[in-house]
Specification:
This is D-cysteine desulfhydrase. With 338 residues, the chain is an alpha/beta fold. The protein folds into two domains: 3-47 and 160-337, Rossmann fold; 49-157, Rossmann fold. 41% of the residues lie in helices and 16% in strands. The chain is built from eleven helices and ten strands. Strand 8, helix 8 and strand 9 (253-255) form a beta-alpha-beta unit. Helix 2 packs across helix 6, helix 6 crosses helix 7 (196-207) and helix 9 (268-281) crosses helix 10. The chain binds pyridoxal-5'-phosphate. Pyridoxal-5'-phosphate (PLP) binds at residues 47-48, 77-78, 157, 159, 191-198, 286, 289-290, 317-319. Pyridoxal-5'-phosphate is lined by residues 47-48, 77-78, 157, 159, 191-198, 286, 289-290, 317-319.
């Protein structure tokens, strides 16, 4: 499988590091926890979308587009990174923000919302939760065309058969790093949202005959519906690459117990996980994705899901800028600790 046949821009240097989290691992006398630091990827504050955008933006440029349009939640990391790559390429960027939690959009709020403006977003369109985002983005594309320009629409989270290539590259990196470090990873734990990270990684690993289980922690959907989503992206990517491979349903692993009351709504376990990793490893997770994913990893360790001494690789997909939009819940935790 040769991914170099696809157009790609480069927004990071070399493989992201894999670190052993010694102090965190010691707490439970269970598995050895390793972390792949995709939070250190390039573009503004990094994170998983940078890998997908290398292929998506390259396709946009190849098609002669000068404007990127994408969508996300009001504190979307994907929107921040799409905008940052647009700036780097001298393109414009329009954002459609879905107010998934009613009343959660504040035009002058902190976190990623602030960065949208600092990075020079062209327009922000806020729509209520449940809106057909593709329709709204298509309308934006017409407005861009009326200005004599050409837009490229990137779907939610950059999760499609083009964005998936970014996480197939990550799979290649992990396999190489495992070999170079002389460490076998027995399980990989990843956040499963719009699905491109989990699906690309799983497909990439299987395409290289690497059979490690990839455990997705859902931050939004019930497991069966997340699996449907992942299967759909995987099938399209297989078709794009003309791969002679199938990913059976039972190979798609998703836990949905850590979502709490819904997407982006904090859980106590998330706050505890973010706090613990900050205080034991000096690493910043985020409240919406990696914090809930880590709360899942911790719970699964406590339940004995992983064998003692197994090597578990947690993929840190970034997102820390949105911590600043969640200050009260963390200050509550700090007050309890005093
Ligand atoms: C920090 C972070 N981690 C994980 C995810 C989930 O990745 P995916 O949408 O590819 O499932 C996102 C999605 O926006 C994210 O911003």
């Amino acid at each position: 499988m040769d991914l170099s046949i696809f157009p790609r821009r480069r927004y990071y240097q070399g493989p992201t590091p894999i670190e052993k989290l010694e102090r965190l691992s010691r707490i439970w006398d269970g598995p050895n926890i390793f972390m792949k630091r995709d939070d250190t990827l390039g573009a503004a504050f990094g994170g998983n979308k940078t890998r997908k955008l290398e292929f998506l933006v390259a396709e946009a440029i190849q098609q002669g587009c000068d404007t990127l349009i994408t969508c996300g939640a009001v504190q979307s990391n994907h929107c921040r990174l799409t905008l940052a790559t647009a700036v780097k390429e001298g393109m414009k960027c329009r954002l459609v923000l879905e107010e998934r939690v009613p009343g959660s959009y504040h035009p002058q709020s902190s976190g990623n919302n602030f960065l949208f403006h600092l990075l020079g977003v062209e327009t922000v369109t806020v729509v209520p939760g449940g809106t057909n985002l593709m329709e709204v983005m298509e309308k934006e594309a017409v407005k861009v065309a009326d200005l004599g320009r050409k837009a490229y629409i990137i779907p939610t989270g950059g999760s499609n058969e083009v964005g998936d290539l970014g996480y197939m590259v990550c799979a290649q990196e992990m396999i190489r790093q495992s070999f170079d470090m002389g460490i076998t990873f027995h399980k990989i734990v990843v956040t499963s949202g719009s699905g491109g990270t989990h699906s690309g990684l799983l497909l990439g690993l299987r395409a290289y005959h690497y059979d490690v289980p990839v455990i997705g922690i859902s931050i939004n959907r019930k497991s069966e519906s997340e699996k449907d989503l992942l299967q759909g992206i995987i099938n399209k990517t297989i078709a794009k690459l003309d791969l002679d491979i199938t990913i059976p349903r039972e190979d798609i692993l998703v836990f949905d117990e850590y979502v709490g009351e819904g997407y982006s709504r904090p859980t106590q376990a998330m706050v505890d996980a973010v706090d613990l990793v900050a205080k034991t490893e000096g690493i910043l997770l985020d409240p919406v994705y990696t914090g809930k994913c880590m709360s899942g990893l911790i719970d699964l360790i406590k339940k004995g899901y992983f064998k003692k001494g197994e090597n578990v690789l947690f993929l840190h997909t970034g997102g820390a800028p949105s911590l600043y939009a969640y200050l009260p819940i963390f200050y509550e935790k700090f007050a309890q600790n005093q």
